[in-house]
Prior knowledge:
Number of helices of chain A: 4
Low-confidence stretches of chain A: none
Oligomer: homotetramer
Mean pLDDT of chain A: 95
Largest sheet of chain A: 6 strands, antiparallel
Number of strands of chain A: 8
Radius of gyration of chain A: 15 Å
Distance between the termini of chain A: 21 Å
Order of helices and strands of chain A: HHEEEEHHEEEE
Strand content of chain A: 35-45%
Amino acid sequence: xxxxxxxxxxxxxxxxxxxxxxxxxxxxxxxxxxxxxxxxxxxxxxxxxxxxxxxxxxxxxxxxxxxxxxxxxxxxxxxxxxxxxxxxxxxxxxxxxxxxxxxxxxxxxxxxxxxxxxxxxxxxxxxxxxxxxxxxxxxxxxxxxxxxxxxx
Amino acid sequence: xxxxxxxxxxxxxxxxxxxxxxxxxxxxxxxxxxxxxxxxxxxxxxxxxxxxxxxxxxxxxxxxxxxxxxxxxxxxxxxxxxxxxxxxxxxxxxxxxxxxxxxxxxxxxxxxxxxxxxxxxxxxxxxxxxxxxxxxxxxxxxxxxxxxxxxx
Amino acid sequence: xxxxxxxxxxxxxxxxxxxxxxxxxxxxxxxxxxxxxxxxxxxxxxxxxxxxxxxxxxxxxxxxxxxxxxxxxxxxxxxxxxxxxxxxxxxxxxxxxxxxxxxxxxxxxxxxxxxxxxxxxxxxxxxxxxxxxxxxxxxxxxxxxxxxxxxx
Amino acid sequence: xxxxxxxxxxxxxxxxxxxxxxxxxxxxxxxxxxxxxxxxxxxxxxxxxxxxxxxxxxxxxxxxxxxxxxxxxxxxxxxxxxxxxxxxxxxxxxxxxxxxxxxxxxxxxxxxxxxxxxxxxxxxxxxxxxxxxxxxxxxxxxxxxxxxxxxx
Lengths: 152, 152, 152, 152
């Protein structure tokens, strides 16, 4: 099976099968071995500060962790020689987990839509390090993140 | 007004008025100037990994940020000389914000109930540093966190 | 006085007047309001692992903190309206300090020369966030860092 | 060979055989599987800010990384069944490395002597997470740190 198809399937799974993603309205809108893009729209239920209509920091950190995690998954898939054995693939992906996450909140989370992108900085045998960014629809840089994921 | 009453009011506000807290079921169960305790119960809608019934990492980071933020708020209140001027209090609290957050995921988020505690490590003129921990009902240590908050 | 001259002076000060920089052999080789570049050569006295001839992690974190700190200084200078009052400039710069630093060690610190670059991700009224990278002379990416600095 | 003797040997190695530790004057003064203590004295050559006689942040981060790394080593040793095969021990320890380090600078590094302590928060199969603190001789809390180490 082609890498592209597997990543597409994982993106769909993240969109449709994880309740928290559906609550936030997270959608994986672009996903290949180079980068991932996740989008979600502003909604009252995501607000941390009602008066100022600012996104809850937990929504930001959730989106950051999801984006970094997807790139960690992509880096595992990219390294596998045989993608046809789905049992092995599933076993490898079940081991992927966040070791730690740092989120830098740069500006208040204001906007109509939020776009989170992630890329892999380094993927070794055991851990992957990813870098994440969140912007709004006006390209205002709202948050920056670094994640470490166990991948093997 | 006494510090105790103000903290109680803020705890109630966090429990009842912030939609994301209600979705997760976050409840501030203990809050003074020394420490805060937040609890929430396991629920299918909080799961990140359906097969393994493990908490979504974003729920963990959200609870950590909330607990750290409450301690940052407590440290602002503790330093104020006059707590009767609610307008000034509100103005000061509106400036509190997360600068950055690090979450270390120590073990899979399994359990019936999760307890997040936070304390202030250092509260200066401009920033406060807090330390957070998440355990489950069996006292298994699930996550550890460090937060930096703007307080003045 | 022009920004350029002030930054040049600060670079010289960092090169010549700080004992630890001289011990490591840190040299600020490029410094403007957009980015800073710092270089140092491999030396036995900087080794953490003698058998493998790998740089001590503390040398890496030191160079990262210095590079991030210089960009925090640059962002303070860039915002000042009057650069001719050296007393005010000095007072402002004395307040710049590292709030926290995260270093991600991506690969073993092997090489003949190490190049650390930093840029500002966000500079607000009170804190600046910087991003740092360390490569060796063969452009191998050795470390990545994020720093938060108090600037006002 | 007893764990205690091995840790003593590693402590001596860190004190005597690593040039950067000797430059700083780092001494491992207490080291068992529960905690490590490292001490060093104030010295002009360790200063980052000459006017204010404050420790260079890089010295702090170096000491933090060393203390966390020693606890990661201790957790590897604690898990080994046979400590008599020095070749295997050496091979295992050669794999220990810092994945990432966060240092929170709480107060200016003033003092006559600095004491860094570390403990393991979590030691899994592949990574260990450690928590570090630096105080001066008057028990002023100067810095706090979190480290992630590859251990297997």
